[in-house]
Amino acid sequence: MSGIFEIKSKLPGTKTSIFSIMSKMANDHNAINLSQGFPNFETDQKLKDLVTRAMEEGYNQYPPDSGVQVLREEIIKKIRSLYGKEYDVDSEITITSGATEALYTAITAFVKKGDEVIVLKPAYDTYEPTIKLNGGKPVQIQLKGDNYKVDWEEVRSVITSKTKMIIINTPHNPTGTILSEEDMLQLQNILSETDIILLSDEVYEHLIFDKEQHQSASKFSELSERSIVCASFGKTFHNTGWKTGYCVAPENLMKEIRKIHEITVFSVVHPMQRAYAEYLKNAENYLSLSKFYQTKRDLFLNLIKDSKFTYTPSKGTYYQLLNFSGITDENDVNFAERLVKEHGLASIPVSVFNINEKDNNQLRFCFAKTDETLEKAAEILCKL
Ligand code: PMP
Ligand code: GLN
Fold first, then answer.
1. Predicted pLDDT at 1
2. How confident is the model at residue 208 (pLDDT cuts 50, 70, 90)?
3. 309 CA → ligand 2 middle, Å
C-alpha cells in the first residue's frame, strides 16, 4: 500500500485510457502516431487569427455559463439549416468543454443509482465509467457483423422500467459506420412509448462519406424531444486541443444539464467561442470537410490496397479499421504494441471498446494526417 490509508476506488475496473497509452508509446518509440484521434496538420490560420483578435479585443474573462450568445446563435442557425430543428438560443443550448464534458454532464444530470443505460458496443471509452460513477448500470449490446449494425429488436428486448437512457454515436468511433434514416426511425419508434432519454454523440457529424447524409437525432421531430445531441468543434475544425463543444436539448433536459455544467466547469474558454462564432458564418468551413476527409480515406486505402490487411471502407469519422488476421494470430493489443515497438507505427486495438474486450483482429487507424504521414504509415503496413 502506498500512502497512509487505503483508498477505495470509485471506478475500480477503469484503466488509463487507451488513447493516452498509445500516444505515449508512440512518443516513447518515436513512432508515426495514427492512434489517438487528432490531426497532425494545422487548424485554419483564419481561425487562429480570430482567436488572437478576440484576445486583443479583451474577451479574456468568464463568458456566460451557457456560452457566448453569438456562438449559440450561429450553432442554432447551422442546426436549423442542416436538420430543420429550431432550438431556443437561451434555454436549449450550452457550450461545453469539448464533447467529453457534454457527455459527462448529460449522463450525470439524469442517471441515478440503479438506473440502466443502453450502450452499443464497441463504445467510446467515457460512456460507461460515467454511468457507473453515477451508480448506473451499463446494459451492453453488441453491434452486429462486419458492418456493425444495430439489432433494434435486441435493443427493444433489453428495455426495462429501469432504463433511463440510450447512447448512440453516429458516425461511429471506432468502427467508421453510420446510422441510416431507417435506423433512426426504428429507434424513434422503440422509444416512443417510453420515458427514455436519447444521448446522441454526433462529434463526427461533418465527416461523412460517399454522399451519405448525417442522420442527426435533431432531424427526427419526436426523437429530438427526448434527445441530447453532443458535438465537438475540436473534431470539426482540426483543433482538438481547444476542447470546445456543445450540446443541444429541449429546455426541460437542458435545465438539469446546466446545473451540472455550472458546478463542473461553470463556463468555457472565451476567445475560442468568439472565434468559432465568426468562423461558423461561412458554411463552407464545415461543409467542405466530408470531401477533405474522404480524399484522405481514399488515399490511405489506395496506398494499402496490396497489403495483407482487409477492410470495409469507413463511412464516416476519421478512422479506418483494418483486419490483420492475414498477418498474425496474436491478439490485437499485443500486435498494436509490437507495431509501435518494432515497426514504428501506432494504432488503437479495438478490443478495448468491445464487450469483455473481445478481440476481432482489428486495429483502428486515424487518417487525419498529412499525405506524407499517411504514405509513410502505408509503407510500413504494406511490408507486414
Ligand atoms: N465522442 C467521441 C465518439 C469521440 O471520438 C470523442 C473524441 N473526440 C469525443 C466524444 C470527445 O470529444 P472532445 O474532444 O470534443 O471532448
Ligand atoms: N476521440 C479521440 C479518439 O478516439 C481521442 C480522445 C481522447 O484522447 N480522449 O482517438
1. 60
2. very high
3. 23
Ligand nearest to the CA of 245: 1
pLDDT band at 300 (very low <50, low <70, confident <90, very high): very high
222 within domain boundaries: yes
Establish whether residue 279 lines the binding site of ligand 1, counting it when its CB lies within 6 angstroms of any ligand atom. no
Q: Whole-model pTM?
A: 0.97
> Measured from the CA of 19, which atom of ligand 2 is nearest?
8
Residue/partner pairs of 140-145 with CB below 8 Å, 24 or more apart: 140/355, 142/354, 142/355, 143/175, 143/177
Q: How many domains does the chain have?
A: 2
Q: Which domain holds residue 96?
A: 61-282
The atom of ligand 2 lying closest to the CA of 126 is: 9
149 within a domain of the structure (yes/no):
yes
In a domain, 4, yes or no: no
DSSP 189-213: HHHTTS-PEEEEE-TTTT-B-TT--
User: 156 and 66, same structural domain?
Assistant: yes
Residue at 212 is within a domain: yes
- pLDDT tens, residue by residue, 233-272: 999 999 999 999 999 999 999 999 999 999 999 999 999 9
* Shortest-distance ligand to the CA of residue 168: 1
Task: Name every protein residue with a CB atom under 6 angstroms from any ligand 2 atom.
Answer: 17, 19, 36-37, 173
What three-state secondary structure class fits 182?
Answer: helix
Ligand 1 pocket check for 100: Cβ under 6 Å: yes
Q: What is the pLDDT of residues 52-108, one digit of tens each?
A: 999 999 999 999 999 999 999 999 999 999 999 999 999 999 999 999 999 999 999
Residue nearest to atom 7 of ligand 2 (CA): 19
Identify whether residues 320 and 337 lie together within a single domain: yes
CATH number at residue 355: 3.90.1150.10
Percent of the chain with pLDDT strictly greater than 70: 100
Pocket test for ligand 2, best of 16, 23, 38 (most atoms within 8 A of CB): 38
